[in-house]
Amino acid sequence: MSETTGNNLVTVATYPEPASAQVALSALEAAGISGFLQGENANGLIPVAFTARLLVRAEDEAAALEVLGAQDASLEEVTAAELAGEHVADSDLVE
């Protein structure tokens, strides 16, 4: 899914809403991976017309995808538990 830009940056994810993009960027930064969002402000103005792209340096792509994959897995666990009416503690999500 990654797309390389002319300045050695790759798109590792796209988001339809700025809040989700910010959460993903925060997860990367917490893991020590620098990144930035492109199109986030335009997305806030006309959400149906734009997406926010999360970009990282090409050499950080694999690590970024791993962090984002772990984040998605944690969110899926919480959602499944919520649907089942269970309570999930933060400590249950840490491996």
TrEMBL record:
Pfam families: DUF2007
DUF2007 domain residues: 11-68
InterPro entries to which the protein is assigned, alphabetical: DUF2007, N-reg_PII-like_a/b
Domain of life, source organism: Bacteria
Residue spans crossing the bilayer: none
Protein name from the UniProt record: Signal transducing protein
